[in-house]
Fold this sequence. Notes:
This protein is an all-beta fold and 194 residues long. It is 0% helix and 61% strand. The strands form five sheets. Strands 5, 6, 9, 10 and 11 form a five-stranded antiparallel sheet that branches. Strands 3, 4, 7 and 8 form a four-stranded antiparallel sheet that branches. It starts with a strand and ends with a strand.
Amino acid sequence: LDWILQNGASLDCTVLPVELLSFDAHREGTGVNLEWRTASESGTAYFSVERSSDGQSFESIGHVQAAGSSAQAIDYRLVDEQPLQGVNYYRLHQVDEDGTAAYSSTRVVHIAPFASTVNLVPNPGSAMVQVLLNGAEAGGLFELRDATGRLVMQRLIPDARMEFDASALPSGVYGYRVLARNGEAAARGTWVRD
């Protein structure tokens, strides 16, 4: 709206294409859940979710059709089913029907170097224990600690399966963790020696 008032005064009311209330990114299972909410939209065509490994070079990982025009809050969602290992930078690229575009601020989600699921079988156990490291990369470490936090075992991960003899360990609850080659914890849990 443009209003021409007396004595040369004017008032220019520009309607913003999108009023973005929030943009969040968080890990959910093996993927990253990206959610955003708009308070209002005017002539919005679509949203493109972009991802980067360095925060500089972004590429689109998916599009979501926009409502176009709305005066009500609208929720949007897209799931990155295959996030990068390490740091993932996400941003929204909002494109209007007239071709103009705008970017949101960037959100960061860290995915462990190998987002593995670890199973110790049997659990509880008392003799030979199989450690199944789904998604683990060779060269990391498997650690087992007693209830006081004392390290009772540390083994190099040769591949996706390893085993250890638990017969010499006292009964109790033990904590385990898997460390990536860079020393970062990638998985953790508990195991019971019966």
